[in-house]
Amino acid sequence: MHSSVTRILKLLIAAALTAGLALAVAACGSSSSGSSGGDISLVAYSTPEEAYNDLIPAFQKTSDGQDTDFKTSFGGSGDQSRAVESGQPADVVHFALQPDMQRLVDAGKIADDWDQNQYHGIVEDSVVSFVVRKGNPDNIQTWDDLVQPGVEVIVPNPFQSGGAKWDLMAAYGAQINEGASDQEAQDFLKTLLEHVPVQPGSASDATSTFTSGKGDVLISYENEAIAAQQAGEDVDYVIPDDTILIETPIATTTDAGDAAQAFVDYQYTDEAEQIWADHGYRPVVQPVFDKNKKDFPVPSGQFTIDDLGGWDKVNADFFDPENGIIAGIERDLGVATG
Fold first, then answer.
1. Which of 76, 147, 152, 268 matches a 20 to 30 Å C-alpha distance to 85?
2. Spatial contact of 330 and 272, defined as CB atoms under 8 Å apart
3. Which CATH code fits 126-245+299-333?
4. Burial code of 195-206, b = ≥16 C-beta within 10 A, e = fewer?
């Protein structure tokens, strides 16, 4: 009887040890895989959707990306930022401009040190360009050409689209670069917007509007122009001498897992940066940019948003929906600023 009880106790102890070991291995496997596995919700501005269609499967082939599943959402940058602020699930956010990221920092959804890497949280660059009909029949070369009689210009709505803010600040800054006063540059913006018959909600929607036949010139990201050409659209594009460097920020949210951080880190690998370049974006990793620099000449009068005072100042002065310069112009034209 005693030996029988002893045998049962040994069996129970052995079973417990086996179960404990299994749990330990499972926990160890979960920890060691860290960034491997799990769901990643990506919320981004509209134009990089095609690039992400290549970046996501490339990441999934890496050791960090194995067994990861993605849910994606693309749209106007401002709309996307406000959606995440209001509760839309997101692990990785990629916006068209810094204020859309700052909104989520202020809401506690993005850590305030999100930009503390060597690239300041910027994953790819672009410049503002003029997309024109094949052969450039109107000979659009400069900003002044956009405000000639009869020229129709397509620009997204700056109160929905981050791309539109870059477009309009490129127009303003180009005037300053060329010696105009602040008031003269503001007057140019008013004249330019008078030539805009429709303002779609995102940069991608603006491209679709233009390629469907509306307008004579589209102000847009260089990468949007390249993407339209790659898609077989009958367009050309012009990079004006005076234009702005577009920098788009990426970050993980405060409750994102290791897989999300691994995906952001992957963006700065040579492989990922080349994918960005293949889709018409300017790489931020210097060796990859150097490899592709013949495709991305630096405009002679290129400037940055910091040259115009930085986004905090620009957003307050130009894009405040109540008192901003652009809001005033848009209201006069009957365009929504909400």
1. 268
2. no
3. 3.40.190.10
4. bbebbbbbbbbb
Count how many residues are written for the chain: 338
Query: In the chain, where are the structural domains located?
Result: 36-124+246-295, 126-245+299-333
Mean pLDDT score, 91-118: 96
Instruction: Return d(Cα 280, Cα 200) in angstroms, integer.
Output: 22
Tens digits of per-residue pLDDT, 253-279? 999 999 999 999 999 999 999 999 999
The strand pairing partners of 44, in sequence order, are 74, 94
Domain 36-124+246-295 top-level CATH class: alpha beta
Half-sphere exposure (Cβ direction) of 93: Cα atoms closer than 13 Å? 34
Give the single-character DSSP code of 107: T
How far does Cα 90 stand from its chain's mean position? 15
Which stretches within the chain are classed as H helix? 2-33, 49-60, 77-85, 98-106, 162-177, 182-194, 203-211, 222-230, 258-266, 270-278, 286-292, 311-319, 325-333
pLDDT at 119 over 50: yes
pTM for the full model? 0.85
Domains 36-124+246-295 and 126-245+299-333 share a fold: yes
Would you give the distance in Å from CA 164 to the centre of its chain? 13
Q: How many helices (H) and strands (E) does the chain have?
A: 13, 9
Among residues 58, 233, 81, the alpha carbon closest in space to that of 161 is found at 81
Virtual torsion, Cα 24, 29, 35, 38, nearest 10 deg: -90
